[in-house]
Design goal:
By secondary structure, the chain is of the alpha/beta class. The chain is built from 10 helices and 14 strands. The strands form 3 sheets. A 7-stranded mixed β-sheet has the order 6-5-4-7-10-13-14. A 4-stranded mixed β-sheet has the order 11-8-9-12, covered by helices on one side. Bound molecules: 5-S-methyl-1-O-phosphono-5-thio-D-ribulose.
Length: 341
């Protein structure tokens, strides 16, 4: 399995996901500035992975700091504020940075060195916690599927990448597939290519095929035809932010997929850690949606696909209303509608 991120002892080693699938390139991040840039450019992406990366990014501010302890503490808080501006939608980013801020507030460190140790211990804890939460999501998601689908192979459709490379390990939407594979449960996956940046074909297809899971890439607009032919047992997707009523933001194109799934009676399941739930928002209307560079749509991967100067609409996420969601699976349980977390 490829690792999303690793701590080297002095830097964070990220798999550069912008280079997939053609290159397995690693990049070492040693400053908060570099981490901000890596998150913004999608070198590291996926809500849980962004959160853990940002935490390490803030920790690097202390590790690079030379000067008195109170100034070091402020440098970490400033770095956390700065990293919080890298992407707006995934609430895991803000959640993880809040964990770092509370380490600084609670700190009993008497030197910059011990502050670094406290911060690093918190980052490693977030790293391990993400792995174990995703594992648990996989177990609960698999049990949910096995109760409902009796034939084999089980065929899932997914959108974007909510796999191991969007987290520390296992992923969220793909975790039940990996846990199922360990237990000999045959599954196959259709992966929407996921316009405009193709996380589905570049990243999901890469990680699943490397893990030996049968995966078929399709254009986003082919999902309805597949569902009409009854070739999909369930749609499994991740989320970047889930409001208190269950409305869920995920990669653009998730909402139309949920509408199509409802039309054909295919279960539509969102899988995410509890750190993706934003209890401060009563519904999805308050979820901030990132709008990205128009070039991603009209000049993807350096190829011009529209006339120069044309207007472009490029929101990175959409919000699926809770009433289209069959279940929301966290590391705690499979929630059924109406959602109460
Ligand atoms: O823009 P991205 O690639 O960060 O978008 C990622 C997604 O939308 C994922 O589905 C979501 O973050 C969940 S990852 C477990």
């Amino acid at each position: 399995m490829l690792s999303t991120l690793e701590w080297t002892g002095s830097s964070v080693r990220l798999l550069d996901q912008t280079q997939l699938p053609t290159k397995i390139a690693l990049v070492d991040i040693s400053t908060p500035l570099q981490m901000h840039d890596a998150i913004r450019r999608l070198v590291v992406r996926g809500a849980p992975a962004i959160g853990v990366s940002a935490a390490y990014g803030a920790c690097l501010a202390a590790m690079n700091f030379q000067g008195p302890l109170p100034v070091a503490r402020q440098a970490v808080l400033d770095a956390a504020d700065y990293l919080a501006t890298s992407r707006p939608t995934a609430v895991n980013l803000f959640w993880a940075l809040d964990q770092i801020r509370s380490v600084v507030r609670r700190s009993v460190a008497t030197s910059v060195e011990t502050l670094c140790q406290e911060l690093l211990a918190e980052c490693h804890r977030l790293f391990e916690e993400d792995r174990s939460r995703c594992r648990r999501i996989g177990e609960i998601g698999l049990a949910w599927l096995l109760e409902r689908v009796k034939h084999r192979p089980i065929t899932l459709l997914t959108h974007c990448n909510a796999g191991a490379l969007a987290t520390i390990a296992y992923g969220t939407a793909l975790a039940p597939i990996y846990v199922g594979a360990e237990q000999g449960v045959a599954m196959e996956v259709y992966s929407d290519e996921t316009r405009p940046l193709l996380q589905g074909s570049r990243i999901t297809a890469t990680e699943l095929s490397r893990a030996g899971i049968p995966v078929t890439v399709l254009c986003d607009n082919m999902a309805a035809s597949l569902m009409r032919e009854k070739r999909i047992d369930a749609v499994f997707v991740g989320a970047d932010r889930i409001a208190a009523n269950g409305d869920a933001a995920n990669k653009i194109g998730t909402f139309p997929l949920a509408l199509v799934a409802r039309h054909f009676g295919v279960p539509f399941v969102v899988l995410a850690p509890t750190s993706t739930i934003d209890a401060t928002l009563p519904d999805g209307r308050g979820i901030p949606i990132e709008h990205r560079n128009p070039a991603e749509v009209v000049e993807p991967f350096g190829l011009k696909t529209a006339p120069p100067g044309v207007a472009v609409y490029n929101p990175a996420f959409d919000v699926t209303p809770a009433d289209l969601i069959t279940a929301i699976i966290t590391e705690k349980k499979a929630h059924a509608a109406p959602f109460r977390f």
